[in-house]
Amino acid sequence: QAEIFPGDIIVAGSDGVFDNLSDADVCDIVGSFGPKAKAAQIAKKIVDKSRVVSLDTSAVTPYSTVARGRSGYDQYKSGRGGKVDDVSCVVVKAS
């Protein structure tokens, strides 16, 4: 449970977002927008970045870090590589 204040930005995303972007990556994207940015613009940027990273075989991602060295995850044995998946994101700006 969290208290939400006017101006707060809430990001909800599928595993296609959070397997490829860290929390810090998402916060950096959100922080790159000014206060007048529309929620849809922020969500699109998060989705676009997630998709680019998912196709990058050299990216260090949350998923590749966890999958590294695990049985059945040979493509991630280096600890690198995006995870191709569906990508959905909803951003809400509290008012």
Q: Extract low-pLDDT stretches.
A: none
Which structural category fits the helices and strands?
alpha+beta
Q: How many E strands? A: 2
Strand order of the largest sheet: 1-2
CA radius of gyration: 15 Å
Q: Could you tell me how far the N terminus lies from the C terminus, measured between alpha carbons in angstroms?
A: 18 Å
Described by the principal axes of the CA atoms, the overall outline is: elongated
Q: How much of the polypeptide forms β-strand, as a percent range?
A: 5-15%
Biggest sheet architecture: 2 strands, antiparallel
Please, what is the average pLDDT? 94
SSE run: EHHHHE
Q: How much helical structure, as a percent, in the residues?
A: 25-40%
| Structure annotation, total helices | 4
Please characterize this protein's 3D structure:
- A two-stranded antiparallel ribbon has the order 1-2.
- It is of the alpha+beta class and 95 residues long.
- The protein starts with 8 loop residues before the first strand and ends with a strand.
- The chain contains four helices and two strands, in the order βααααβ.
- Helices cover 37% and strands 11% of the residues.
At a glance:
With 95 residues, this protein is an alpha+beta fold. It is built from four helices and two strands, in the order βααααβ.
